[in-house]
Structures are given as structure tokens and as C-alpha cells.
Amino acid sequence: MLATLLGWLAAGAIADTLLVRPGSGRASFLLVAAAAIGTTLAAAGPLPALWPVAAGALFTALARLPVRGRLGGFAMGLVLAIAMALPWYAAMSERFGAAFLSQAPFFPYALEPAGPWYGGPFRTASFLMVGFFPWSALLPASLAHAATWWRQIRRPDVLPVQRRPDAFDPRAGDPVSREGREENAAHFFVACLIAALVPVACYRSPPLTAVLPALPAAALLCGRMLDHLLEDPTRVAAPIGRAIAMLAVLGTVSAVLLALVAPRIPANAAELRLVATVVFVTSWAPFLANFVGARRVAALLIALPVALGTPAVTLRLLPSMESWVNVRDVAGAMEMASPRDARLVLLEPAAPSLDYYLARDLVTADTLAATLERNRASDGLAYLAFRPRREIEVSRHAHGILEIVIRTPSLVLARVHPD
Predict the structure, then answer these.
(1) Counting Cβ atoms within 10 Å, is residue 38 exposed (0-12), middle (13-18) or buried (19+)?
(2) Structural domain ending residue among the three candidates 191, 207, 228
(3) Which CA distances in Å does 231 have to 152, 165, 234, 249?
(4) Residue 279 near residue 251, CB atoms below 8 Å
């Protein structure tokens, strides 16, 4: 979240130089961009930090902006950002050497196991679809709508005929119309979306939150298209119709998948079916409104899956599936079953909710039997937490009698008695 906030702060400062006052390169805004990039570079690594720079470079290349007069300011800002982060990288490199440098490009998810290289594009597309649902159905049409002018300027032979007289040429100076400013900003948001999604494909096994930096650009692009719809429904009727039909298909598939998963989790089957029903109904409501010709209403109804689905998930589904999404039950069992001086041995890095709820020291095991022996509590027992799939492995290598204290879908708490 912090990297997303700082990244968009830097993107806004770069946009001021490229869009608001082309060629001016105001030092105050470049200083803000450098400070934001430098802070993110030290806190989260190079990929979350440098995507705003990549977005500016991509926009400059696609819009064919002259780089003379801008390159010097951007270079100085980038040097300042690197100088801010350099002490941290130098200290870590001195302490950990090549082990740190080999992991640094993949921060903040460097400790995750490496996934297959070909999974990057699949993760990128699926994360954007899930993280931006239901508006992800509108995003392809919004991208095509925003790229119309780009397709024209790439063909100089048709540019004088197809280009509107008031359209903005970013090479010609300040915008001369509201439409020109909108088009230019939309192109910059397309560049931001592409640049923010590239790190998701580069990370090893990123979580869904890795797509956060791309969502503001996607939202702004969809907002621009909806603004044009509210002004003149006939202008974008065809792409809006296709997007609404895609939303109905995505909602139907999601509802069917939830209904199929429900019987496999009997304790939460009723809540999963409720969410499936809400997703199905709200995904088809925009289609029905568009079918009767109420295009403005159909566009507003795209928000229904979130407006009604979020309360259903928050109030019904998540409370019943708490043990699936956090480990508070495990933390409570550890507090009750162990003495105050007991340490909890983990096979993997601790989940954030465990670190939050449990007032115990956490130890990550290197060699399981030796770590358990070193961390026995005052009652003579060692306390261990692991994922359910690793229970057989733990029972073989613990070198003791394994007693399960509590078993949850996300984590198992056990104590190991000496042989």
C-alpha cells in the first residue's frame, strides 16, 4: 500500500512535467518524484519504485515527445532517488553479500518460492481481472477508447484527415481544449497501467496485492469512458454493450465456481451460495438495463457486484471463514496451551495475523529437530506451527511425539514431547 501511494505520487509529479507544463521541468515536482521513488526504492525494492519512470519513458516514446530539455531533470531526479536508497543497499550488501543482491530485484516478495517463468503473464491478467472486478469487464473497451488517437498519430498519412481540429498534439505545447487534455491524460494512464503491470509478471510468486499500483490507472481510464457515456450514450454505445455482456459472462462463471466449491466446505456452504447468488444477479442487471436501452443506468449498475457483494462477503462469508483467512484461533490456542516463556517454531515465515495476535517470540526453523531442541519451553515441550500439508513431513523429522493442539485450514499448532 505504501509503495502504491508513493509510486502514484511520483507518477503525478512526472505527469506535471510531461502534460501540464510540457518542457518546463519544474524543480519542485521533480524533487517530489525523486523523494517518492527513493523512499520506495529503500522500502520495497526497485520494481515498485521504478515503474513511474518507466511509465514516463513509455509515454514519451509513444507520443513522440522530444526528450531534449526533459532528460537532464529526470536524470538528476533519478540520481537523487538512488542516492537516498544507496546507504540501505550498501549496508545490506555488506552484511549479506550476493545472497541479498540476488533477491533484491524481487522485493517485496523475494522470500516467496519461485514460480514458473511462463506464469507471469497469466498472473498479471488474472490478478487484474480479479482485483478490478467488476470494472475489469469495462477495461478492454476503455483501453481501446483511449488508444484511438494513438492509432491515428502512428499513421501520418491519415492524420490530417482523421484527427479532429481541437485534438491535442503533445509536441505542440499546452493543451488547447478540454478534449485534448483528456486524451493526453488518458494516454499517460495507459502507459502507467502497462508499466505498473510489468512487475507483477517479473515477481516470483506475488500475492494479489501486487496489482494495486495498476488499479488507479485502470479506474481513471474506465471513469473517462463512463464520463463520455453520460455525456452522449450513442458515442460509446457499442463498446459499453460488449463490456456489459462480458461482465454477465464473468459473473456467471464466478457464480458457478462458487456454487461448485460450496459443497466441499460444508461449514460455509450456505454463505458461499449466498455470495454466488448475489454475484449472478448483480452481474446480469446491467445487461438487462442495456437490453431495454437504458445505457446510462446500465453503466451505473456495473457497480452492483461491489455495492451488494462486499456487504455479503464482509458480514456473512468472511466471519464464517475466519480460520481460512487468518490464524487468530491458532494464536489463542498457543496463548492458552503454552507457558509465557514458550517460543513458537515455524517452518515458513510467520503470517502477518500470527505476528499481530500472538504475544510470543517466533523462530523460523533451519534444521527442524535442532531448532525444536533449542527452543523447549519451561514445561519441557517445544511448540511448532506448520501448514496442514506438511504434517507428515513434520512427524517424520521432529524426533519426538507430536501432539496436535489445534488444526485449522490455514495452520496447525502442535507441541513436541521428547522421546
Answers:
(1) buried
(2) 228
(3) 24, 20, 9, 27
(4) yes
Which residues have C-beta within 8 Å of that of residue 158, sequence separation ≥ 6?
152
C-alpha cell at 128: 487484474
Domain residues for the domain of 300 are: 232-320
Residues 6+ apart with CB under 8 A from 140: 243, 246
Q: Is residue 355 classed as helix, strand or coil in its secondary structure?
A: helix
Helix (H) or strand (E) holding 403: strand 400-407
The reported pTM is 0.75
pLDDT tens by residue, the chain, 419 residues: 889 999 999 998 888 877 766 544 466 777 888 899 999 999 888 999 999 999 988 888 877 776 655 565 677 778 888 899 999 999 999 999 888 888 888 888 887 777 777 788 888 989 998 889 889 888 988 888 887 655 544 444 433 333 343 444 444 444 445 666 777 888 899 999 999 999 998 888 888 889 999 999 999 999 988 888 888 888 888 888 999 999 999 899 999 999 999 998 888 889 999 999 999 999 999 999 999 988 889 988 998 988 898 898 888 888 888 888 888 899 999 999 999 889 999 988 777 888 888 888 899 888 888 888 888 998 889 999 999 888 888 888 888 888 999 999 889 999 998 87
Count of domains observed in the chain: 3
Helix (H) or strand (E) holding 362: strand 362-364
> CA-to-CA distance for 380 and 414, rounded, in angstroms?
14
Same domain, 159 and 247: no
Residues 312 and 348 reside in one and the same domain? no
Amino acid at 118: Y
Bridge partners for 362 per DSSP = 344
Q: How far apart are alpha carbons 81 and 53 in whole angstroms?
A: 11
DSSP per-residue letters across 255-267 = HHHHHHHGGGSGG
